Amino acid sequence: MAPLFDGLRYSTLAGYTWAHPRLLLLLPAVVLLFLLREGLAQRRRAKLGVAFVRGQARAHWSALLRFVPDVVLALSLMLGVLALARPQRTDERVEQSGRGIDIVLAVDVSASMELQDLQPNRLEAAKRVAQAFVQGRRGDRIGLVAFAGDAYSVLPLTTDYELLLEELKNLRLGLIPTDGTAIGTALGVATNRLRTAPGRSRVCILLSDGENTAGALDPLTAAQLAHSFGLKLYTIGLGRDGRVPYGQDELGRPRYVETRLDETTMRQIASAGEGQFFRATDNSALRSIFARINRLEQSEIKLTRYRNTHDYYRYYLYWCVGLWLLWLALKNTFLTNALED
């Protein structure tokens, strides 16, 4: 019998979407209507005093039977309201057409990324903006490369953005034991990931705050190699030149260090890869840069949605009609003549 009453469960009703949800406001009105009717009947009903009965007559449960027809009618009306509100369930199927972009993020994790001209430091600012960039992409395959004195592929091209966001979060200073800035090696690793990718557009976004001081591969040679495989290169220079805050001394006073970005090489890399160079001297500029790259590199992904809607009003309509017929039958029985207390 469970399937017969399954549609009357709260969990089932809560799982519907309603074509006319405002009609559900009539449900409490049905109850109030019967309560008002009973109240008015009590006031207008004539009472007969019986002189030969001492005290009061004892109440009997059978007197409650007179309410059965009204309860049945109220349930019939409420189920009719549910049917009029048209409970529905919608199955949605999404088909994707087109191809996304293949992107590799190459992030500098060298010691200089701890400098605090970007807040809370250069690396954390880069990670946060990169995470927001990933969350704004749809259908693209994105990989991750980390580099310092050497470069490693942290994650191959993937559409598993949750895993990618977790790996971005786990980037930290000292992740690569060899210190330095191997920009050329990082471009070589990114090229190796992207060169066989089937995407119509292949992009490498490189974030660094220094000049190439490590690695055996020259950055410009690496950029030309990347271009030969059809890669587009965007380079982002992080931080300001000159004296930059770097932690505190033993007395709690801010310390400063001298820093310099090899902007010329970063521009040449972007030019060789037919991309663009950007300079981010604060958090706001970094966010604007990623927003601009997001606009420049748009995926041609088309989503086609198929919606299949099923109506369930018949279930409640059958119950409504069945209870209404039961009410008509009960009107002609002794229940409507059951004595009151």
Automatic annotation (TrEMBL):
Listed PROSITE patterns: VWFA
UniProt-listed InterPro entries: UPF0353/GerABKA_families (IPR050768), VWF_A (IPR002035), vWFA_dom_sf (IPR036465)
Key word Isomerase present: no
Keyword Transmembrane: yes
Pfam families, alphabetized: VWA
Entries under Gene3D superfamilies matching the protein: von Willebrand factor, type A domain
Bilayer-crossing regions: 312-330
Sequence ranges assigned to domain VWFA in this UniProt record: 102-293
Lineage top rank: taxon: Bacteria
SMART domains: VWA (SM00327)
UniProt KW keywords: Cell membrane, Membrane, Transmembrane, Transmembrane helix
PANTHER family, alphabetized: LEUCINE ZIPPER PROTEIN 4 (PTHR22550:SF5), SPORE GERMINATION PROTEIN (PTHR22550)
The name this protein goes by in its record: VWFA domain-containing protein
UniProt source species: Hymenobacter edaphi
